[in-house]
Amino acid sequence: MNRAARLLTISFAMGGTSAAWAATEESQAWMTEHVTIRADQDNLVSIDSSQRARSDGRSGGEQFLARIGIDHRMTPAVQLGGGVAYLNSEVDQEMRLYQQLTLTRGLWLSRTRVEQRFFDNASEASWRLRQRVQASVPVDRAKQWTLIAAGEFFFHLNRARPGDRTGLAMMRHQIGIRHPIARAVDAQLLYMRQQNFREGRPDVVSHIPWLTLSWRL
User: Fold this and answer.
1) Beta partners for 140?
2) DSSP code string of 134-182
């Protein structure tokens, strides 16, 4: 088993084990619209927006996220990229810069992303590291249906606000299906379990159906 497979397996195992821990549970529903534009042979521009309905208003209520980025292909298996994002919730606003390295091999994808997050209620940037591992497995010969399984870890690298914790702060597990619904348009429907780790308080576990519509231009 390669390193990416081991990391994804450990991620799902940790998620299952953590269900036994005391936690506060909530429900959310996410919708994302994603457009990719091939600027040239080696550069891909991505634009997306997400609407996030959340049942727990104490954690920020409704959210809207918009993001634009570019990825440059270094080799067939390596991409370097970055971009900017804006997030608005009922309690604060956030501007975000990010840089990322994406590695692909066969069915596997690994993405390492570093973010600098600027909040309207913090005087310094919050630095966050995100590590994602994903497997995309075709389930039919025509490759019209693809099974998606992924795990992602979020690490806070500093304390920009009093409520922040350093180290592992959040973990996501996703499983679902992707299917083309029109020429150059895919639909992806995932179930995501998201766990926020909190110091001195129960963790927050969110159960999220997530629909993404993707256009390729």
Assistant:
1) none
2) EEEEE-STT---EEEEEEEEEEE-S-SSTT--SEEEEEEEEEEEEEEEE
Question: Residue 137's domain spans which residues?
Answer: 3-35+93-216
Is 134 inside any structural domain? yes
The per-residue pLDDT for range 92-133, each reduced to its tens digit, is 899 999 999 999 999 999 999 999 999 988 889 999 999 999
Per-residue tokens: 13: 């195992």
Which DSSP state fits 10?
A: H
Whose CA is closest to 99, among 119, 117, 75? 117
Would you say residue 18 has pLDDT above 50?
no
Quick: pLDDT tens for 75-96.
Answer: 999 999 999 999 999 888 999 9
The answer to whether residue 75 sits within a structural domain is: no
Judge whether 54 lies within some domain: no
Domain count, the chain: 1
C-alpha–C-alpha distance, residues 90 and 60, integer Å: 6
Q: Which residues pair with 149 in a beta bridge?
A: 135, 175
